[in-house]
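Researcher: We're teaching a course module on how sequence relates to structure. For the next exercise, students receive a sequence and then see the predicted structure as tokens, so they can try to spot secondary structure elements on their own. Here is the exercise chain.
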Amino acid sequence: MLVQTGLGKIKGRASLLWDGIQVFLGIPFAHPPVGSLRWKPPQRLPGWSGVLDASRYPNRCLQPDFPAALADVPMQGVLSEDCLYLNVWAPEPDGRKRPVLFYIHGGGYAAGSANDLDPSHFALQQDVVVVAANYRLGNFGFFDLSSCSPEYSGSGALGFLDQILALRWVRDHIDDFGGNPDNVTLIGCSAGGGSVLTLQAAPAANGLFHKGIALSPGEIFSARMDIGAAQAAYLGMHKAEFLDYALKLSSEEVFGMPLQLGTGALACVDGEVIKSTAAKAIAENPNPIPMVIGSCKDEGRLLTPMVAADAGALASVLEGMCAKMGGAPYRSYLQQTFGDGFMEAKMTRLWDDYFRGGVVRNAEACALAGGQVWVFNFDVPTEHVLGTTHASDLPFVFNLFPEDRPLITFHDRDDPSVREIAQSWSNTLGAFVRSGTPRDATLPSWPRYDLEQRLCLQIERDYSLVIDPDAERRPVFELAERVVAN
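Model: And here is the predicted structure for the students to work with:
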């Protein structure tokens, strides 16, 4: 199947899973960010001659190995600094312009790729075009070198600039694939959910999307972190000397720099690209985008074991995440709750508070601004030891259970009730993508979240509405915002 675009001809292939879906993999949306373009804003690709083969998964940014708990499904794509590609899944053309779902992958801003998900079934059932884009991660996407040279202003938010350029590609070219650039919904989980929120604080992204679905959003740090200066000091170099040194490093050496400094590059409010916290930007927006936002019941059960084997790593992550949650007041809260020790219990509670706090803060900001926002709790029962943990809702969102292929899930894919919830929840979010209102015949009427009742959709083996389920923990969630405000 051949598509003529303003950039050139692109040859895709039929979906391997579902009839009626065309797949276009590895479309470059920027020049490779290598050589002189390392740590520079992404540069728009003018196009190509001939026919672009879009039948294979593209490179993905260099990143750590996938966690053992999630390693059952092989990761697609070669690891490379040359990683700015996107994938498109589209129903066969019939002259109509369909809504667009723009998927931003998770992975803590340090892992993951556009290749992690095949949303063919969702595109087919919900009659939408789905786009997923890679963005630079870790030291390639969030290494702030702006204090080393004004030429690198904005380098601390390159991953977000990559997302924005991919959205501009959607605006300019998605109609060639049957998509409507005037009806674009962002969706993401974890760092992807955090990106859905964060892009609302990026003026360069204004007008590029119209709705958002934030799943367990991983919020960024609220203050700029001058990692370039810190790394230069660590190595005993002047800033200019360090910059020259860093530009000559291999991709693998750049990726390995956290081992020298003790921490990786961190996504944060850099003041250049990202102007404020998402909650502040949303609250001050006279017309915030409609949003669906929520989290899972047992967020931390997956994430704590990833660092618990190393006591030093556990303490370091705990301290770093406490800074996101409000610093000393939040540490005091953990101490009062758990006492001395109990590091793993503290870490698990912190993850739960971090993700649910992001949901509540940003939902309240949207409601305060008079926007439309719907809030959910995801707690579909499972016998898995990790419970309804972080990202366990993704297979439900995209209704992946009917597919005959390896699947990362903590639920029984053959359980009829699991499949029923997946179908209805996928339908609900599909309706939101199309119309801006989340609904399905199997759900109760789901009112928008407001600051009086704070109604929340509880998703278990059935759906119910709960009044203000976060009342007891809200003061804890507010600690981070208080620190930002002060």
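Model: If you want an answer key for the exercise: The chain has a mean pLDDT of 93. Residues 2-306+353-442+470-475 form a domain with the Rossmann fold fold (CATH 3.40.50.1820).
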